[in-house]
Amino acid sequence: MGTVRRLAEEVGRGLKAALPRLRKTVVGKVALAVGAMIEVRSPNTAELATVLPLETQRQDMREQWLRRLLKNPLLVSATLLEPWARQALEQAHRNGQTVVLSLDQTDLGDRFAVLMLGVVVGDRTLPLAWRVAVGPANIGFSGQQAVLDQVRGWLPDGAAVLLLADRFYPSTALFEWLHGQGWQYRLRLKSNLSVDPGFGQIVTTGDLARGFTQRYLPNVRLFAHEVPTHLGILHEAGHQDPWIIAMNCPPTQATVRDDASRWCIEPTFSDVKRRGFQLEATQLQAPDRLDRLVLIMALAMHWCVRAGQEEARQHPPRSKKNPGTDRSPPLDL
User: Fold this and answer.
1) pTM of this prediction?
2) Which domains does the chain have, with CATH numbers?
């Protein structure tokens, strides 16, 4: 429990500095929960409760403490994660770089669906915003817009954005939202979507891909609403399905391959699920409590990345000890 207490003290200092108006008791409890999550890496409240450095020795009281925390309406994900999310977005934009966001969904059996928007950091993403729905549902545009609007408000001024998303998400509403914001995008498409490629007839995206290893089609129109976009198609050897990518710019092989960065969210889902925090094993039944549990996991992930970056700056590899090679801004949370 000493390790959890030390972790909680570090996390608590960061939360106090970043959220000075948040109640001191809430900061302390969230910090303890994040410390326990880093130590145990489990969604099981009984396991988390075991390592909590509380005064009581009774396990039932520990579990009750944690259950009350997950029911606390003051734990608003957007509020608690905002300063950490802004920090991650600022770093992604340093030196004028394009901020790359990845939108994807994961299911927890047939109980919950979690839609998550993350920022690409190296070969993975950090969670920024999410929505929890009951059942294995495909969370539609209303949920997508909620997380997109949330993160849009946290972006650094003037930041260029590239959104990556899997083939379950593109819709007329999503395209219109992206066009309205001026965001770049690479959206993978299903093969059964109607498209007007300008050949005088309506076909499907699968028809356009059939028989081609590469194909680039500017100025097409998708869906019945004829949404303007560009298509890039790439079918690599050994892959059953081609990549059919809608994009905001003239299509090339390089712009099609931009979509590969979308897979950076998979390590994040692995961290949240089977290889990390084992979220699929949670016994929680209420979506609001699951949302707060995801918040605790997300704070743990941001804190671990923060700690790793600080360690790298203080003890850089030999090849990076040359002054000026690392110009990343210091973390101040």
Assistant:
1) 0.86
2) 2-75+284-315 (no CATH), 79-266 (3.90.350.10)
